[in-house]
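Appendix B. Chain record.
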Amino acid sequence: MPYRKTPAAVMGAAALTLLLSACAGGQADTLQAGQQPASPGTGLDRFYGQKLAFKPCDPQMPPGAPAVKAECARLKVPLDYQNPEGRQAEIAVLRVAARGKDPIGSLLLNPGGPGFPGTEHAAITAAVWATSPITERFHMVGFDPRGVGASRPALDCYTDAERERDAKFASFPAGVDDRTEQETRRLLQQCAERSGGKQVLAHVGTRDVARDMDVLRQALGDEKLSFAGASYGTRLGAVYAEMFPKKVRALVLDGAMDPLKGSHERRVQQYTGMQRSFERMAASCATKPDCPLGTDPDRATKVFQKLVRPLIDKPAPTSDGLRLTFVQAIEGVTAAMYGEVIWPAAIAGIAELKAGKSDTLRKLRDIYHERTADGVYPNSLEATMTINCLDEERHTPKQETAMNRAIFNVAPFTDPGRPIKQARDGCEHWPVKPTLGYPYATGIQGLPDTLTVSVTGDAMTPHEGGINLANALGGSLLTVEGEQHGTLQAGNACINEAVAAYLIDLKSPAVGARCKL
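Structure tokens predicted for this chain:
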């Protein structure tokens, strides 16, 4: 948390599925950063030689979205690429065929997370881009990364009941209910038991998924990869570029995660952006006489703290018999930091809380978690947490506590106002070391031009990270003026034209190119 996507129900029709994403190790035989990936001819020929058996399927679409004609298949990959004769994983794949008669190939898509399924994302993207030249020239292909969605084995760490009781996905906000060492040991055990064993937990990192993408590229019949990834998807695309630079045709990286900053620095950077967005939301609210945060934006954070901190000891009931805790209230407001379009819903929720009600903030939190009306939670955030155990730097309690204190310092709207005794990294007892490495995707040789799209007011993946990614890849940068995380489905003509020109004709925008939301 909080790199992720936001469901269309929050965003409104104009931003059908505005791409958002979750914060962004392996056994001794897992490749570490800098090692070369296994390739065909090293026991992987049977995977690279497979043909996908696509069959018609009916993807679940958001209310109001047009139907699409899709087909689905399953891709087999080795669970451990260093042991291709061993256990296998199956990757769920969905394809919407190109509308035109002369397709360039497949456009592989990733929505972020890292725990969010790409199959439904591809179907929704095809619907949003129904008249775009991109869907005319490309087959839209989504896949659920290993451990995610319909892929098998699937990551699973908590029951729905545990999720309802605020199961922990990160150490922050610390000071409310900090993990104990016993809890982190138990977390490992229950994740392993419910996900298919510790071997599964050792092989779900981004470097594993990048290898799966290359097998998928071959199975789709594409000599080189065309890819569009949002949020965490920019990390995935960048790591693929690092590992398979000569197999890249085009990469669109939207809402970039910074490849140069380690976990502490990047998360502090992100929460700095979140506080900035909270203050801009408060300033917008202050122009209205009934603003629940008051008419002085400089005092808005303190007003908000006074409203939500009592929820730590006394959660507020909702009209449907649920409750709103402090953590849930913070998550509900955090959802609004993904885009200016969600600010009114968050302000309405804060106003309700001030009046003794809690339904709207709880609803925003539930949408954030993708909770269904009957209380069922998907595995998206559990997958995000587990994948991050391989991607993020492993912190000692001292380091995790220091990071939380730094976060509360730069984002006081999240601060519970209680001392942090000792924060713990939930991955501290993971049986394997992280496999990503920082910095990543630097000094790549033989990589064609890439396109990074970055919004100036993006709270979740601040603009600085987009600049750093574009520079690291030696690629092009399209700067977008706005207050939003992710742009590819924003319906903006300037962005759409630039992305289409790049993907179809490999024509990059001019140096200094800008669009405005």
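Further analysis of this model is presented in Appendix C.
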